[in-house]
Amino acid sequence: MTNLHPKIAEVTERIRERSAESRAAYLEMIRARRPDGFARGHLTEGNLAHASAGCAVIEKTQLLGAGWPNIGIITAYNDMLSAHAPFEHYPEIIREAAREVNAVAQVAGGVPAMCDGVTQGQQGMELSLFSRDVIAMASAIGLSHDVFDAALHLGVCDKIVPGLVIAALRFGWIPSIFVPAGPMPSGLPNPEKIRIRQLFAEGKVDRRALLKAEAESYHAQGTCTFYGTANSNQMLMEVMGFHLPGAAFTNPGTPLRTALTKAAAHRAAAITAQGEHYLPAGELIDERSIVNGIVGLMATGGSTNHALHIPAMAAAAGIIVTLEDFADISHVTPLLTRIYPNGPADVNHFHAAGGMGFVVRELLGAGLLNGEARGVAGPISDYSHEPFLDGDKVSWRPAPEESGDHDIIRPASDPFSSDGGLRLMTGPLGRGVSKVSAVKPDKRVLEAPAIVFESQEALKEAFEAGRLDRDFVAVVRFQGPAANGMPELHSLTPPLGVLQDRGFKVALVTDGRMSGASGKVPSAIHVSPEAARGGPLARVRDGDMIVFDAEKGTLDIKVDPSEFAARRPAEFRPNASSVGLGREMFSYFRQMSGTADTGASQFEFVAGEAKP
Q1: Residues annotated as binding site?
Q2: CA nearest 106: which of 243, 242, 276, 265?
Q3: Domain 422-598 maps to which CATH number in 3.30.70.2860, 3.30.930.10, 3.10.100.10, 3.50.30.80?
C-alpha cells in the first residue's frame, strides 16, 4: 500500500487524539451490547410472538426456533421522492435474498424523507435540516425492538443518509449496510437548465418555459443527476465503507441494481455476531473512515452540506471533527472530477467515465485514502473495483485504468485543481465555509459594501425591483438553525448569477445554507455564531465595506473593531416563519440546536450518552 500522505496522517492522528475519551466511551457502550446469540434471544415468549406474528410461515418458524439471523430494514421509501420511489419493492427483493442464505428480513421501520427540490425557496425548507435528526430518532425507534442481528438502511437524499448513519452508529453493535437506489437517467443538459433558470429570473421567458425545462431535467425515478448532497451522500457511503463497492451510481430498475441489492442482503447475513465475520457498524467506522469521507468529498467537489453532516455523523461514533480538519484535508486533496455544478456533466457521465472505482484507485495511489480502513465488503483498498453482472449475480473487476473522459474525471497526477476547493472562512464576522471549486478564480476575492437582508424573499424582491445593479456583498442573516432551521438558500443563486453575468462583483455571506448544487457565485455560508444568537452578522449595517477573500479564507469588515463591538445587534424577531406547515412543532429543535460549525445537531454525545 502507498504510504499515507503526511497531512492526511496528521489530521487522522489529531482527530484520534482529540476523540480519545469520547471514542473509548462509545466503544465500551457498543461492545457491552454485543449479543451472545441471536439478538431476539433475550425476549420473553410474548415478546417473541409479537415480533414474529406478521411473518410468512418460513420466517416465523425460524424466528420462533431461533435458527436464522434476522435482518432489520429501515426504509425511507415514499413515492413522491424520485430517488426513494424505487425502494417500494426493495423489502420483497431483500426478503427473498435473505432466504437464499438462511436469514430472515423484516421492515423494522420507515423514516420521513422530504425532498429539498420540492421545498427550495418554500416554507417547508425550514424543516429540512431538522429532518436529519428526526430520521435518526425514527430509525432508533425501529431498531429499538432489539431483535435484529444486522440492518439494511434504504436511503439516498440530502438529510436522509446522514440521519440513517447517526442511528446506525448509535446502534453500533449491529452490522449495517446502506443500500442505494441509483440516479435517474440523464435528462436536459445542465447548462441548458441553468440558462433557462436565469432567463426566467430576468423575465425573458415565462413560467411555462421554466416548467418545461425543469420537468425535462427531473423526469424519472432515481436520484437527481447533478452532484448535490444526495449524490455526495452516495460517494460518502462508498469511501466510508457502508456500501458494497460500486453500488452508488447504478441506475434503478436495472438487473445490476437488483443484483447489488440482493448481494447487500447476502452480505448482511454473513457479518452478524453469530458468524465468523462479525463486523459491527461502530467498529467498521473509525477516524480513518471519517477522514476518507472528507477526502472523497474534496476530490469530487461534493456538497457543502457535508460540512454540517460529517461532524454530526462522526460525533455519533464518539469522533470529534472540526472545520480546520476539512480545510487542511482540502488543501492537499486534488479535485479529480467536474460534475455539475462544477462542470456540465452529470453523475451518469461520471459513472460511465470511470466512476467511483477510478476515483478510489487514484486516491489510494496518491496516499490520500487510507486503504486499511474497513468496508462492509473488505478493506477500502478493495473498493477500486466496479460491479458487473456474471449471469444473474454480481461480481467485481478492477476499475478502468484510464479515464473515459478527461473533461469529467482525471487522474491524481493531472487534476482539475491542486486542492479540493473548500475553504474555511474566518474573521471578525465569524467562521464558516466557502466552496470555490465552481467559482472562477477572478471571482473569489472582492471588496464591496454590504446590503443586509433578513430573508431570502427580501433579496429577491430587491433584485426584481432593479435595486441590486451594483457591486455588493449580500448579508442574509437570521437563517441559522436557532432562527428558522437553517434553510437552503439555493433560490438566491439565479438572481445573484444574473448580476454576476452583468459584470457586477457580488458575493453572499449568510448564517444559512446553500444547496449542494451551489455554483459560480462566491459565498461564505454556515457563518457561526449565527445572528439569532448574537453573532457578528447581527451588527452588520448597509454600506459597511466587506472584504471577501476565498483564496486566503478571510471574511473581514472595514469598521473600527471597537465601534463594531459597541453596536447594538439587530434583534431577531420570530415571525410567521415559526408557525404553519408544522414549524411550530419544531420550536424545541430551534432552541436546542447545536452550532453550525459543530454540525447543527440536536445531539451531543458525551461518554456514550446523548446530552441536551
Answers
A1: 157, 224
A2: 265
A3: 3.50.30.80
